[in-house]
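step: validate -> pass
step: tokenize input -> pass
step: predict -> running
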Amino acid sequence: MVTSRWFLRAIASLAMEVSATATQAQFVPPAGYSGDAKLPSVVPNQDTSRPRLTRLSDAEVSRLVKPDPSYRRGKSTAHTKVVGAFAIDEDKAKVVAAWSFGFLPITVEFDDGRCLLLSANYIGGTLSNGRFESAQCDDRRPAKQPAKASPPAGQSLRYLGSSWDFGAWIDERKRQTIVTAPTGTKYQPLFSVNMDGLAIAAMSGPDYPGGNVTLVGRADGRLVVLTLEVGY
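step: predict -> pass
step: emit ->
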């Protein structure tokens, strides 16, 4: 009987370990994950039919991002940190849409009917090894969620979409994308980015008030995929 109980406990423990391993395999670490891998900024493009991908300087794109100074949640304020940004060459085809169930990888659709998956390694709190992989445009897409709350009357904003309850709104006059906090049902701008947004993709932290947000849009005349660590 003792041997039987021990055997059952061992099987249960093994099952838990396998389950945990499977969960970890699907987990994308948040910004700040430490690692020492040395990877190129982008993978050399072996397929010349695909658009060129360029890793942008974090400092260069940080100037586009502005946390909202009026945001308050108790004693917490908004903060952002750029963890990676890529520019997509649109000489041959224009980007018309993008989507993801997290914040990366993200499927990018072009006006010539192609779709590519943009992936990157997330090590040492930064993105590297950016690359395109084949993707199908008819792959499952997240359904567009309705806005949790509308901006105050008098603000002419267009709703872009939401991901993990982070909402995105377009101020076409200022050519600016505004991202709202994923808490409550009140319209609360968290930060803004000086870009004409095309898509938002995000993932909230499992046990902390923050997460990662990826915005796709045009800034300074180029198509940019920008990933941020955000806190609220």
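step: describe -> Confidence is low (pLDDT under 50) at residues 1-37.
step: cleanup -> pass
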